[in-house]
Fold DNA repair protein RecO.
Amino acid sequence: MEWREEAIILGVRRHGETSVVAELMTRTRGRHLGLVRGGRSRRQQPVLQPGNRVEANWRARLDEHLGTLTVEPVEMRAAAFMESALALQGVQLLAAHIRLLAERDPHERLYEACLTMLPNLQDCRLAGGMMLGFEMALLDELGLGLDLSACALTGAVEGLAYVSPRTGRAVTQAAGAPWADRLLPLPRCLVTDEAPNWAELVDGFALTGHFLGRNIWVPRGQDEPQSRGAFIAALERALRAAAEG
């Protein structure tokens, strides 16, 4: 068995004295692992950094085997990420999210989203909205997407202001008023094309975090990734600095 395609490095773990097991995100083969012989060498280490885009060649005798990988650099971004706390936490959070996907299960939509996000993770004006959109897409890809198309109670498509924490369906401000303290705020940026402000991002991450936690992290016995809180905190600092500067 053999395949070759571009991929994004998610991370590596040591294997023996000189090798590593690399974790990749590919367009057509999803999250994929493989053994990189000599992956701890001075030549290979800079290539095998999270966020780098590579040309990967995988080989194995049988499809279910771990297999071996050779990688060649296509786009090296890891060094730039190290200079930005926002980008560094962002690429780690993307990797944590992608690890929620079944290995070798293709998710081309999420792969394309990663390609779009990686060049923009250092830009605080774009990174927050993109990450929020990625979490929404992740829920959708996992079969847990939110229905924000119309009010669950009235069918109205205007004036949507809340989301039911139980069903994930939108509710208008008028219809949801009696239960406002039990509903989750719906940020406008999720139902319009407007760029989000900080308050909307806070509400948006609370919304996606609720459903990721209830439906994925808790049932799997997992905690919210530390990189998620770190990313949100770095985003707040970067936006504050941009406003002041």
